[in-house]
Amino acid sequence: MKGTVLIVEDQPNFREGLKFMISQSRNWIVIGEAETGEEGWQKALELKPDLILMDIHMPVMNGIELAERIHSHGMDTLFIIITGFQDFQYAQSAIRYGAMDFLLKPCSDEDISGILGSASKKLQAKRKEQQTTREHLLRSILLKYQMNQELTSHFLRMFEGCRLWLVTITDYFPEGKNYGADDLYVLQYGIYNILQELALSEDADAKLLILKEDQFILSVSSDLETACWRENAELAVREYLGIAIESIPLGSTSDVNGLMSAYADYNEQRVHAPTVPQIADRSSKHQAVEAVKNEIMSLIISGDLQALHDYFEKVGGQAGSLPLTDGKILVINHSLALDQISEVLGLFSHQSKPAEALLQTIDQIPGTMELKSWFKSDCQDFETRLDRWKQQANPYVNSIQQAIDYIEEHYLDSDLSIKQVAENIHLNPSYLSTLFKKETGETFTGYVNKLKLQKAQVLLRNTDMKISEICQTVGFEDSTYFSSVFKKHFQISPSEFRQNH
């Protein structure tokens, strides 16, 4: 899906040149243009572009004033500053307000192509992060895994003005198709692409999200031809994959309780669940796995992660005290349950291993102590991924993300310190320092310096400002220290970097 661009430029010839260059791109499409900053602001509110190219000198409202307004309103939009002045008197403000890069007039086709390529990479990373966050929010609310007022408010912002459709796969493995359990991910990907393409072909602003292994949520912010889309979707999936689906509207995202009720009512009325092939030697243990899964899920839903940890410790102790064969059965049931829960919550960072591989691994464990150790490691991995999931679902509890956001907002402040950041997010400075290093791999000072150096790279590459001026602009007080830190980080001096770029 192409990214959308708004061009805010008062010179018609240059604006037309940009439009032509962007039209040659595989990744971008121009959806609007404006001649003044004020007109650009109104178009930005109306069109919500992914990227804004804005001139720094325009009538009514200049590019820096437009950048400040975008920044102050918290608009999630990339923007690039266009300028013909290499002395960059506005450089510090542009950097502070979040300019991704600068495009200098006159610019070549290669300059424009390169900067669009960089913007495309940033947009793809942002979309992936937003997709993950939306899926976590949906699972938290519709599956009732995590609920609180802050999370609900975040959901309302992320899905503002949308309506949700529930798409359910009624049979993943129909007769006449030689599908197996290992084909599940390929089938999900196929269904995902078919539904997404159909929604977009209706000119609907649509996003398809995976709720669980047999259900998708289609989020649309414009009207779909309901009957037509539903019929086309069911026919296309049946034609290409031989799989039956059904879809129902859940309602507006402004009514969270209504969405939850509609989803719960639908699932209660479902008569046939998807048929998933069972492994022969697991069939006798299926009930035990279901019981374990329900017990673990009840602890997750309660939000008491300490109780969950204690539960794992208790089971590990039992596995270590039982005869080896009985202990392995206990561990197998719990590990299969954790895999199934991870599947539903989307905790896997990669495709999970087939159950047969898990059984083989446990079968080769030689003794009870090794079995207990293996299970402890498996549970710790699950707890880590669960904690990450909860943080992504509710960024307000993610202390490190709050710290990073604060740093990016205030890195130019001369008095910025770990104590100041800790006070702002209500943490002990010593604890934040330890947590920050653990989560980012960098010290607080190292992270702040890295951020400043990245901003310095942009100015070195795009302006003829003196190195001492760039040093001051990005927040270093001493140019000798700045050059030393720059060379240590990039293995090249600032002047050499400028020559090479």
UniProtKB/TrEMBL annotation:
CDD domains: REC_YesN-like (cd17536). Its main location: cytoplasm. The modification 4-aspartylphosphate is found at residue 55. It is found in: Cytoplasm. Pfam families: HTH_18, Response_reg. The keyword DNA-binding applies. InterPro entries: CheY-like_superfamily (IPR011006), Homeodomain-like_sf (IPR009057), HptR (IPR051552), HTH_AraC (IPR018060), HTH_AraC-typ_CS (IPR018062), Sig_transdc_resp-reg_receiver (IPR001789), Tscrpt_reg_AraC-type_HTH (IPR020449). Keywords: Cytoplasm, DNA-binding, Phosphoprotein, Transcription, Transcription regulation, Two-component regulatory system. This is DNA-binding response regulator. Residues 401-500 form the HTH araC/xylS-type domain. Residues 4-120 form the Response regulatory domain.
